[in-house]
C-alpha cells in the first residue's frame, strides 16, 4: 500500500528551493481536487504572446489608391503582452526571442467605396510575402455600401519572424477603410493573435 503524508504546509529549508519529485515522475490530481494559485506560475503553457491592435483616425477613415497593395496602419494597441507589436512605425507583430510556436492570427476590416466596389483583397503577410488572404468580388452597384473582410490562419512561427496586414481595394469611386474615431476601441477593424498551447 502506498505511503501517505498529511500536512497543512511544506516549506523548503532556509536558503534552498523546494523540489517536487524527480525527472520522469508523474503526479496525478484526482477528480474533484482544485489547484489554487495565488503566486507566480512559471514553466506552464500559456497563450502568450498575445496582441490586438486597431486603427484610429479622427476622420473615421483611411483612403486608399485604387488597385494598390497597401499595408494597413494598425496604430492603436489594445493588448500587447510581450511588447511585440509595433503600432507606430511598421505596424507588425514580431515573434519575440524564445517564443516560437504555433500562432492563431486574425484580421478584419470594413471597407467602403463612394461609387462601386469592384473587388478587394485582405492579405496576411509573413516576412514580407503574402501567405493568406480574403477576397471580395463585385459586391455593389451603388455607393454607400460597407463591406466586411476577414482573414484568419494558424502559423508555425520562429522567433524573429513577423506578420503584417495589407489591403488592396478596387472601385470606381474613392476607396475607404472605416476606422475608429475613439482610440483603442477596435470596433471596425482588428489585427490580433496569440500563441497556441502545444
Annotate the secondary structure layout.
Blueprint lengths: L49 E5 L6 E4 L5 E2 L4 E5 L4 E2 L5 E3 L6 E13 L3 E10 L2 E8 L9 E12 L4 E10 L3 E4 L11 E6 L3
Antiparallel strand pairs: 1-4, 1-13, 2-12, 3-11, 5-6, 6-11, 7-10, 7-12, 7-13, 8-9, 8-11
Task: Write out key terms for the chains shown.
198 residues, mainly beta, Jelly Rolls, six-stranded antiparallel beta sheet, 0% helix, 42% strand
Describe this protein's structure:
By secondary structure, this protein is mainly β. It has one domain: Jelly Rolls (Sandwich). Helices cover 0% and strands 42% of the residues. It contains no helices and 13 strands. The protein has strands spanning 50-54, 61-64, 70-71, 76-80, 85-86, 92-94, 101-113, 117-126, 129-136, 146-157, 162-171, 175-178, 190-195. Strands 1, 2, 4, 7, 10, 12 and 13 form a 7-stranded antiparallel sheet that branches. Strands 3, 5, 6, 8, 9 and 11 form a 6-stranded antiparallel sheet that branches. The radius of gyration is 24 Å and the shape is elongated.
